Amino acid sequence: MGGEMAGTILVAFEYDTIDAAMAGQQAFYSDHALVQLMQDHTVQISRRSLMRIQAEFGERDGGFSSVLYLSSAPIDDASAQANFATNWGHIQDGAHGMITLANIAAGPAPFTHTVVTSTDSLDQLMAASAKNMADPEVQKIMADWNVNLLGRTLARRLF
Fold first, then answer.
1. Are strands 113-119 and 64-71 parallel, antiparallel or unpaired?
2. Which letter does DSSP use for residue 92 in this model?
3. Fewest CB atoms within 10 Å of the CB: 65, 85, 88, 108?
4. Strand, helix or coil at 17?
5. What is the layout of strands, in order, in the sheet containing 64-71?
6. Which of 158, 159, 157, 153 is nearest to 6 (CA)?
7. Over its length of 159 residues, how does the chain's per-residue pLDDT go in tens digits?
8. Cα separation of 105 and 76, whole Å?
9. What is the pLDDT of residue 1?
10. Where along the chain do its domains lie?
């Protein structure tokens, strides 16, 4: 990852239910070889968050990603899908896919949502993002839902 998270590796697992996610975490730490590998390489876990997909567009492929952290008023799934469809109308010009994740359990974090965008060109993604942010309709949605952009990291996909 780049920015203040340079050198950090993000690992994500996807489960169908919260119970399955909890069982997956237990299985992860029950794998003694995996735990030993982490210890041997001084892996430090800096954050664990449980999130759910609230809106998704396009495909999850590309050599790079942007992770945008934001806070907002609580938003129902139908409104999130409609609002982020407006964003995707611009972002798709520079990306393969976009996923909006809502926090379920993220500890003491200032962000309520994370938007992960997949691309093969961060330059094209940033150009599309600038168009998105300049759109008066997007600005209205952000004002209506009290959306605050808190930060962005850029990353290269390893797997």
1. antiparallel
2. T
3. 108
4. coil
5. 50-58, 97-105, 113-119, 64-71, 148-156
6. 153
7. 666 777 788 788 999 999 999 999 999 999 999 999 999 999 888 888 999 999 999 999 999 999 999 999 999 999 999 999 999 999 999 999 999 999 999 999 999 999 999 999 999 999 999 999 999 999 999 999 999 999 999 999 988
8. 17
9. 64
10. 3-156
Cα–Cα nearest to 120, from 78, 67, 60:
60
How many other C-beta atoms lie within 10 A of the C-beta of residue 115? 20
What pLDDT, on a 0 to 100 scale, did the predictor assign at position 10? 79
**CB 68 within 8 Å of CB 115:** yes
β-pairing, 148-156 vs 64-71, is antiparallel
Please give the C-alpha separations between residue 150 and each of 59, 82, 96, 99, in angstroms, as whole numbers. Answer: 25, 22, 23, 17
> Cα(21)–Cα(38) distance, rounded to whole angstroms?
20
DSSP codes joined into one string, 56-67? EEE-S--SEEEE
CB atoms within 10 A of CB 44: 7
Q: Which CATH number fits domain 3-156: 3.40.50.2020, 3.40.50.300, 3.30.70.100, 3.10.580.10?
A: 3.30.70.100
